[in-house]
Write a structure and sequence with these properties.
Number of strands: 17
Structural class: mainly beta
Distance between the termini: 44 Å
CATH topology of the largest domain: Jelly Rolls
Number of helices: 1
CATH superfamily of the largest domain: Galactose-binding domain-like
CATH architecture of the largest domain: Sandwich
Radius of gyration: 25 Å
C-alpha cells in the first residue's frame, strides 16, 4: 500500500471547478481510494488514467493505492479461463509456484523472462498527480508528419484537453518554427470531448530532411501549441518533428528468381536495416 495526503488548499475552492487524478504507468493491480472512497481500479500498466475527483477530494484528503498480488490475480484469471494457456515467463519461480503473466498487462521483464529472478513487483513507475483545472489544461499532445505530395508535408497535431466548464470557448493554435523569422501556423476549435486536431501544411523546400544515423543530420523542428480561452492562453505545450520520406519496397529479384526483395528507402536512398 502507498498513501499520501492531498495538501491543496484549493481542493474545494470555486477557483478550481474541476480536479483530476492523473495516474500514469501504475504497474500492477491497483485500487485508488480517497478518504476510503474508491475512485479508480487499474489493471493495465500501459494505460494512462484520468479520473474526475472534484466531488470527492477535499483539502487534506488521504489518497491510498492498494496493490493486489499480480501472481494471485493472474493465476486466478488463468484458472477461470475456459481454455488451456501455455506457461509464460520463466515457467516457475524457485519455490515451484506456477505463473500466468499472459493474464495481466504489466511490465513483462518483472516475471523474469528466460533469465534472472522473477520478483513480479508492483508500484508506481510513472506519476500519480492531483491536477487542478481552473479553465482547461492540455492533457496530451502529439504530432505526426505525412508526405502530402512531392512538394509538401502535412503535420497533423492532435491534443486532448481537460475542460473545467463546457461553456468555455476553447481553441487550439499551433506554430511550426522553421526559423526565427519564419513560422507556419494553424488553429482549430476544441470539441465537446476535449479533443482538437489541426494540420500544418509545410512546403518541402522550406525544411531540411531528417536522415538515419550515418547518412546525414537529424534536424528537428519545434511545434509550439497554445490552448486559448477566447484570446487568453490557459495552457501551452511543445513537440518536435522531423521530415523524411520512408518507404518499404519489394523489388523483383535479379534474374527473375523466386520471391521478392525487401528494403527500406529513406529520402530516396536505399538503406540496409534489420
Amino acid at each position: 500500500e502507498i498513501s499520501t495526503t492531498c495538501s491543496s488548499s484549493s481542493a474545494s475552492s470555486s477557483s478550481s471547478p474541476r480536479i483530476f487524478l492523473d495516474a500514469h504507468f501504475v504497474d500492477g493491480i491497483a485500487t485508488f481510494l480517497i478518504d476510503d472512497t474508491v475512485v479508480l481500479k487499474s489493471d493495465n500498466a500501459f494505460l494512462r488514467n484520468y479520473v474526475d475527483i472534484t466531488n470527492v477530494v477535499k483539502p487534506s484528503s488521504k489518497i491510498r493505492i492498494i496493490f493486489e498480488s499480480p501472481v494471485d490475480v493472474s493465476n486466478a484469471r488463468r484458472d477461470a479461463y475456459p481454455f488451456h494457456v501455455t506457461q509464460g515467463g520463466n515457467g516457475f519461480f524457485d519455490n515451484g509456484a506456477s505463473i500466468a503473466p499472459n493474464f495481466i498487462r504489466k511490465d513483462a521483464s518483472s516475471w523474469g523472462w528466460d533469465w534472472g529472478i522473477g520478483l513480479v513487483p508492483s508500484g508506481v513507475w510513472g506519476e500519480v498527480r492531483v491536477v487542478e483545472v481552473p479553465v482547461a489544461r492540455l492533457r496530451q499532445c502529439g504530432a505526426l508528419v505525412y508526405v502530402a505530395s512531392n512538394e509538401q508535408y502535412a503535420v497533423q497535431v492532435t491534443c486532448m484537453a481537460d475542460v473545467a466548464s463546457q461553456t468555455s470557448s476553447l481553441r487550439l493554435e499551433a506554430r511550426l518554427v522553421i526559423s526565427s523569422e519564419q513560422h507556419i501556423a494553424a488553429s482549430s476549435n476544441v470539441d465537446d470531448s476535449g479533443v482538437a486536431q489541426l494540420t500544418l501544411s509545410v512546403p518541402s523546400k522550406q525544411v531540411k530532411l531528417w536522415w538515419p544515423n550515418g547518412l546525414g543530420d537529424q534536424p528537428l523542428y519545434d511545434v509550439h501549441i497554445d490552448l486559448l480561452d477566447q484570446s487568453d492562453a490557459v495552457d501551452q505545450s511543445q513537440v518536435s518533428v522531423g521530415f523524411r520520406n520512408v518507404q518499404l519496397v519489394e523489388p523483383a529479384t535479379p534474374n527473375d528468381e523466386p520471391g521478392r526483395l525487401m528494403q527500406f528507402v529513406v529520402n530516396g536512398v536505399d538503406v540496409f536495416a534489420k
